[in-house]
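Fill-in record for DUF2487 family protein.
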Amino acid sequence: MFFNAKDVQQFQSQKEYIDTAIVPLLSINLSEAGIVQSSSSTEFLMSLTSFIEQQFKGRLMLMPPFSYTEGTRGGLSVSLLKEELQKVGFKHVLFITCDHFWTSLGDEIDVIWLPSIPLESMDREVKKKVLEDQLKLVIPILSSKWTQV
């Protein structure tokens, strides 16, 4: 499910089944040297999280991305977001990112880190294959979270 009016209405009537929130963590780097990499990582992460949502619709909700710059990234805001999502009933709150920084907060939040793969120059079929391969890496992580008591 996406965080939009239609899906949220369905979420409200089926909260007991939709127990996982996925929050993309997006780094915004507007410097001359960083903007291309930042936009490429954003494209990859948004494509991947949409693909994950398609596979697990009815089990998870893809939240709007949490965007930050190097100067504004920090664990406090993300930890507070996790708490808010848990208060409304999400048993599992997972953050997914291409920024290795967030793995250092593994004690506070559940982070899935994946290296960014530039999708912009790939044709549709190759892009789909790359996303399927990345999904295969994410499925065991989701499964292990869902089987934890």
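KEY FINDING: The radius of gyration is 15 Å.
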